[in-house]
Amino acid sequence: MRRLAARGAAGDAGEVAAPAADSTHCAQGRSPSPPRLVTSSGIYSDAGMSGTDQSRPRTTQWWQEISCWLGPFSSRSFVCFLPFFSPRLIDVCAIWDTGVLPPTADWKGASSGVAGARLNEAETLSSIQEAQLERLEVATPCGPGSRERGPVLRMARQQLPPWVHAAILLCLLSLGRAIEIPMDPSIQNELSQPPTITKQSVKDHIVDPRDNILIECEAKGNPAPSFHWTRNSRFFNIAKDPRVSMKRRSGTLVIDFRSGGRPEEYEGEYQCFARNKFGTALSNRIRLQVSKSPLWPKENLDPVVVQEGAPLTLQCNPPPGLPSPVIFWMSSTMDPITQDKRVSQGHNGDLYFSNVMLQDMQTDYSCNARFHFTHTIQQKNAFTLKVLTNHPHNDSSLRNHPDMYSARGVAERTPSFMYPQGTASSQMVLRGMDLLLECIASGVPTPDIAWYKKGGDLPSDKAKFENFNKALRITNVSEEDSGEYFCLASNKMGSIRHTISVRVKAAPYWLDEPKNLILAPGEDGRLVCRASGNPKPTIQWMVNGEPLQSAPPNPNREVAGDTIIFRDTQISSRAVYQCNTSNEHGYLLANAFVSVLDVPPRMLSPRNQLIRVILYNRTRLDCPFFGSPIPTLRWFKNGQGSNLDGGNYHVYENGSLEIKMIHKEDQGIYTCVATNILGKAENQVRLEVKDPTRIFRMPEDQVAKRGTTVQLECRVKHDPSLKLTVSWLKDDEPLYIGNRMKKEDDSLTIFGVAERDQGSYTCVASTELDQDLAKAYLTVLADQATPTNRLAALPKGRPDRPRDLELTDLAERSVRLTWIPGDDNNSPITDYVVQFEEDQFQPGVWHDHSKFPGSVNSAVLQLSPYVNYQFRVIAINEVGSSHPSLPSERYRTSGAPPESNPADVKGEGTRKNNMEITWTPMNATSAFGPNLRYIVKWRRRETRESWNNVTVWGSRYVVGQTPVYVPYEIRVQAENDFGKGPEPDTVIGYSGEDSTPTAAYTNNQADIATQGWFIGLMCAIALLVLILLIVCFIKRSRGGKYPVREKKDVPLGPEDPKEEDGSFDYSDEDNKPLQGSQTSLDGTIKQQESDDSLVDYGEGGEGQFNEDGSFIGQYTVKKDKEETEGNESSEATSPVNAIYSLA
């Protein structure tokens, strides 16, 4: 039994997937809805003001304006107007490239006109809204969209306070998204708009010469645009040509030939211009060509004489047509030529025989060309064949002979290529087109063709084989498809292969196509035109069809490469801009207009909608609205309470209210209110919360025998106000309920189970709002054969290095890296490791960047800001890694403020009156910009003293003159020339401890311990102690030994029987001091010689021992007692006996 994690697939009626972060609001247009005023002191509100401030009229406190002109500090600075709540609260907004905050600014005074406008706006609010505003924090617009119009007084120049710096950082990205015009026809018809091209002919426009010519061009705008055309870049005067006219309310050209005329006279390049008083839009450059179907030249063809078994190519050489004709081969009697792997037509139209047989003489061969526009077929004079053979009778019984060629006396030959020639060739294809590779081979027997890609697999989702495997087609080619392909032609006589190196180039394609920009008066915005291609395309800007450099100067417009920045737009700023990007393979042309509108708020959704959602789900209540300037939107519940934003609620820029987790108490009526300086609008949504659908008794896995009955349970609990539907799937496909099955509300029964019933069964319980799934597997007992696979063993090696690295799709934070794989040396490449090197922090050191499967040879790499990257690739198979590829060209990313701070921040005292602050410096991929430095802050813990700070370029800083062993709060923040990193975490450190005698003594000991003589002395002492311990161990173990009785100068008694071999007994009774021993000072017996020296009792004075030191032989009597005392044991040479002797 397995429950599937697939609840809610049907979706909630009121639920829409939460939008991703709006990545486009900084790409073009105005700022998003203004945020609250946040400074270093927090969020300001009415409650936080003094009594004096609160007693002032709200309208004279709020709606005052200041502005700052930051032009001297940046190429992208602009004037911005921001209201403040009281004389002591000031908010400033600036945008600049360098990230360096200017020390001073020009200030401008308050606007009484704006205050009056705000007062009138406040007076029009509903009673609910007025009650809410009394409790709300002051919403302070930030960004170009917050500017009000009115007289502005200049104030004295003064220094910006530190908290204003923080406020400026919050406004850096305020250049936001543009206003979007809704598709509602009532709104579209009311608003003034520059022209937009809506329909046009294709760039390469081929027409039938028998029909009239139509060149399409349609556009919309308000007022409706007028049209004119150019031909070959010169004005095309339609009025002077009676054959040419233009459709009514359209720019479409009609060229009429009913009264005569030659269509070829009108060939050329046409371009349409749509114009109204707000600007001019352009169509693509349309190349008009007339279809051509020339006749085949007359020629007399002699019979083709060929030896049976030899290869043959019949060339077609069709006449050049426009477009190219479709080629096919037939006989002169219009019978199609049968094609197979021996006889087939190539992509160039020629007919190829891998080997000619006698039967090929039975027909003739004629090439036919079908022309698309004229719908005509032209036939070339037919070829006739004369086949020379060693077996003149064409016996049909030999056609099915297992060795037909030998039976006909045809010599067998190894394959050779008829097309293409040689062993290698190259081919270029454009991105997005189809790649067609072809290999046609001769040989006897007819060769088989197989296709491979070097260093990887063929793209199974895009590759298909044509023409009896002689052609490989890859559709919609991309950079990953570049590399080396080879075809293998083989028969029983041998094999050959041809390698085709494929290069993928690209006509320009859009990365960021410029979009229409609609702003309110005084707002800022930008148009972005980014395209990629191979080679990299160039970009040209135009305005109303004229090159931008020749257009009248506009102080509110600035061009920065692929971006046009607009500041303080006014009604007069309306125009249509064109971006033309081109390379040798083609061009792209895009129109984008800039329009300036004043529109009060309007609600776009139906009023009083009912939304039903499932308990504990996440949902969104939509409130689409429109206005210019973009209105601010607030949500309220049940006509009371505070604005809904924060906690379980989140309001998106498009006006949607997200409830992160629905509870029963969230049911009710929600009101959205949109407001701008021109008015307000509101709408209501009723939310109902429903219980979820749950399967509480799920089907279980079962094993059944054939012919038995199986029942799968599925019991469901759901909201009674919703309609429940229970259905079943088998192997994830809808289950057909046949006569052997019975479906009930809470179960599925299968009668007479068969092998085909085996599989997974899924119960799907669904309502119109949600669903629940549960799956079980049914196993039917049956015998199954186990297939075996055999793989041929081939010698394997490390892969060859990848080559020809190329960087494309160059973006701000990413790049596409493409490479050609090396030979895998009979072991498939499993992985590619991409490494990078940067030349600022660690030049020459390579780091792993990412890892990719061995089936790809192109990947998009995510990059860090301000790194001068160079890449290389390593291929890996089961044998090992290849050598690294040669490095790619370098690519430097643009800079940005750091997104992290240094790690391992510590504060420790090295002396009693200091504290050393250390941290791990950041590397090149986290620096994000030049001149990486660290802002170090510290202050004593649990005090209210201000932070001390210093800027450091290294990785340590020593704070001096600190009290003894006091805790400090420490922060280290990264900063570069583009700005500061995020607010750092606080770390607790301690200053140094006071010195004590014990500490001094310990330090002296530490100093002594590092001296060489002291170390040597301690080692000698340790060695002596070890020797004494060994001696004690040996002495302790002596009691277990059996000493041999010494030789006496007396006859042997009966207690000393002598063995036949001359040896003696030995026992514990002689466990007493031996001769030659002496008594030590402490009364113990100290042995001078070894107790059991076996040499003393040997006959030759030399002991014999095994390799492990054991004695060989017997203990025998010595003739001389003096020898017993004088001889040394042979064991004395061992380490233990040597130490024993020393003792």
TrEMBL record:
Its main location: membrane. Residues 1-57, 884-909, 1044-1143 are annotated as: Disordered. Residues 1-21 have a biased composition (Low complexity). It is a single-pass type I membrane protein. Belongs to the immunoglobulin superfamily. L1/neurofascin/NgCAM family. This is Neurofascin isoform X38. Residues 1057-1068 have a biased composition (Acidic residues). PROSITE patterns: FN3, IG_LIKE. Residues 801-896, 901-994 form the Fibronectin type-III domain. Residues 195-291, 297-384, 415-503, 508-595, 600-688, 692-774 form the Ig-like domain. It comes from the Eukaryota. The keyword Membrane applies. It is found in: Membrane. Keywords: Cell adhesion, Disulfide bond, Immunoglobulin domain, Membrane, Repeat, Transmembrane, Transmembrane helix. Residues 1074-1087 have a biased composition (Polar residues). It comes from Equus przewalskii. The chain crosses the membrane at residues 1013-1034. It holds the Pfam family Ig_3. PANTHER family: NEUROFASCIN, PROTEIN SIDEKICK.
